[in-house]
Each structure stands twice: as C-alpha cells, then as structure tokens.
Amino acid sequence: MIARREDGQNLWRFARERLGENQFQALWLHYVEDMDTAQIAQVLGKTRVHVKVLLFRARLILGRKLNPSLTASQAIPAASIRADIAAFAKRPSTLPPAK
Q1: Following DSSP, what letter does each residue of 50-83 receive, concatenated?
Q2: Ordered domains of the chain (ranges, CATH)
Q3: Phi, psi of 56 (to 5 degrees)
Q4: Phi-psi label, residue 70: left if phi above 0, alpha if psi -120 to 50, beta otherwise
Q5: Distances (CA, A) of 79 to 3, 21, 97
Q6: Given pLDDT bands bounded at 50, 70 and 90, which one contains residue 96?
Q7: Exposure on the CB side of residue 32, measured as CA atoms within 13 A
Q8: Over the stretch 59-92, which tens digit does the pLDDT of each residue have?
Q9: Could you give the 3-state DSSP secondary structure of residue 19?
Q10: Which of 51, 57, 63, 64 reaches 20 to 30 Å from 71, CA-CA?
Q11: Integer angstrom CA distances of residue 34 from 26, 28, 41, 64, 87
C-alpha cells in the first residue's frame, strides 16, 4: 500500500516536472478530481476543445518520457497511459494539485 502511494506521488511529481501548468492542471482535474472536459474547461477558463488538446498533449508527453522508444503514432493511442495515470490517480497523494 505504501509503495503504491509512493508510486502515485512519484508519477504526479514526474508529471509536474515535465508538463506545462495548464497541462498538469487538466490532467490532475481529470484523473484525481474525476472531472469531465466540460467541468475542467469551466475551472480553467478554457474551451472544451482546448481541454481535450491539453489532455492529449499531456498524455503524449508523458508517454514519450516514460517510454522514449515510442514513435508519435505509437504514443497517440493513450489507453495504456490513461490506465496508468488513472490507476495512480486513485491512490492518495500529498501533492497539491497545482500552484
């Protein structure tokens, strides 16, 4: 249990260090706060399309950083990245969502 919590914290720390602020916030709100794109758009003051782009690019960046051998076309189907993020996101984290 403790190891999984540390993995989750490490993943969010990893994401925060590599993503832009808006990308990180969108990812956090989606996976930790369980918000849909419309809710995230309202919170961030963006359009739903912009939120979808932020989430897509954040997943793409993390996928490439976690597995550098992936090509863009391999990294784009983000199902495995989504599953990893979702699994870790459900675990308690002491990291604040964003500054």
Answers
A1: HHHHHHHHHHHHHHHHH-TT--HHHHS-THHHHH
A2: 2-89 (1.10.10)
A3: -60, -50
A4: beta
A5: 24, 23, 23
A6: low
A7: 20
A8: 989 888 887 776 655 554 455 556 666 665 555 5
A9: coil
A10: 51
A11: 11, 8, 13, 24, 12
Tell the residue number behind the tokens 């870790």, with chain if given. Answer: 88
The span from the CA of 31 to the CA of 51, in Å, is 13
Q: Is pLDDT above 60 for 50?
A: yes
Structure tokens at 36: 């849909």
What is the rounded distance in angstroms from the CA atom of residue 92 to the CA atom of residue 99? 18
